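User:
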Amino acid sequence: MAPGHAVGVRTTRGDRGRGGIGGALGPRARAATAAEAAAAGDLVVVSVPFKAFRDVPVAELAGKVVLNTNNYYAQRDGQFAELDEGKRTSSELEQEHLGTARLVKVFNNIYSAHLGALARPAGAADRTALTIAGDDSEAKQAATAFLDAIGFDTVDVGTLADSWRVEPGQPAYGPPYGSVEDPAGTPASVEKVRAAVAAAKP
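Assistant: Predicted structure:
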């Protein structure tokens, strides 16, 4: 990775997936089991279908900052009444499962190709902002520092209860960063992303 981060990746593809990790992500990336990746990381990214969130290791993530990219799609994940009725957010349910881990919702509202294309150095006029939400201020500071290191500014949308503002169907989910048909994406400033977040409706 460009900023020099070592990365452990949990793969679901067995030995076939493990063999391709280094070539795809660079020499500092290695394949690992979910528990190995969780135990090794200072910051741990969890990116699984929401329906599988209870399979995420708990003990290995105790006290760690967890960057949660997940979204709830009922057609894929099955029905969760609390989410369908707007009583909870998917991130709140995941935080309950993870216990003492400190969850920050991030990366969930941007197309993966745009994430790779829109990184810019600090101070660049066309630097893009990504959203975060979380209940732990120190965890959000860590997430903000990480985003800065990989080329992004940050817009804090509030707590995990507020994270619905950047979930599927909301103005900040996708459009600020351009069309999925254009892999180069569109730079989205702090002001542009804040306006999209402010336009969210329950």
